[in-house]
Amino acid sequence: MDTTRLIIVAVGGQGNLLASSVLGEAALLSGISLNMSEIHGMAQRGGVVESSLVFGGARSPIIADGEADVLVGFEPAETLRALGRCNQNTVVITSLAPLMPFTVNIGQGVYPDLDELQAQIRDRTARLIAFNAATLARKSGNVLSVNMVLLGALAQTDILPFSADTIKEAMKRKTKKAFLESNLNAFDLGYQAAAGN
């Protein structure tokens, strides 16, 4: 089986770790080996959270610069920051809903221009799927379901070694019942958004 290397970047509180857990469960359901690592030291203070998932026969969860097959960014500036992990064949999926860092809010930093950000990503990768996942999360009935919107977009690409239905089954096992319907709605909205992007 081929190896698929996925990096997910987000800001603390956006649900990166749950999304990674759902994908891990989907791999388990499919009998696919997975190596996974997470960095979430400053997550509670709005810092970056990064997950690396390597599906297939790899022996390590480490994804070096230029090795990612897929990059999923829950926040556009974090997506841009992780661009060095990509190559000319990488597919990038990002939300275009910014979460302004503290330094920008107090006037000591500048947030990247979203059009320029997308142009840089397109220049350095094979494909960019970019849309406002926060808007779709609200439409799904759960403003916190940005992670499930982006999982839907990821499933639509057919890059992962398992189906969208397998991810939905994993969602049923890993998410709280109270949020399941809105999470499934969010997943479907993300899937549709990626299809038209």
What is the CATH superfamily classification? Pyruvate-ferredoxin oxidoreductase, PFOR, domain III
> How much is the average pLDDT?
92
H/E element string?
A: EHEEEHEHHEHHHH
Q: Report the CATH topology name.
A: Pyruvate-ferredoxin Oxidoreductase, domain 3
Description of the structure:
- A six-stranded mixed beta sheet has the order 2-3-1-4-5-6, with helices on both faces.
- The model has no long low-confidence stretch (mean pLDDT about 90).
- Helix 1 (about 15-30) packs across helix 7 and helix 5 crosses helix 8 (about 175-195).
- The chain is about 45% helix and about 20% strand.
- It contains eight helices and six strands; from the N terminus they run E-H-E-E-E-H-E-H-H-E-H-H-H-H.
- The protein has one domain: Pyruvate-ferredoxin oxidoreductase, PFOR, domain III (Pyruvate-ferredoxin Oxidoreductase, domain 3, 3-Layer(aba) Sandwich).
- Strand 2 (about 35-40) and strand 3 form a beta hairpin.
- With about 200 residues, the chain is an alpha/beta fold.
- The two termini are about 30 Å apart.
Question: How would you sum up this structure in a few lines?
Answer:
The protein has helices at residues 16-30, 76-81, 102-105, 114-124, 133-140, 146-156, 164-174, 177-195; strands spanning 4-11, 34-39, 48-55, 70-73, 91-95, 127-131. With 197 residues, it is an alpha/beta fold.
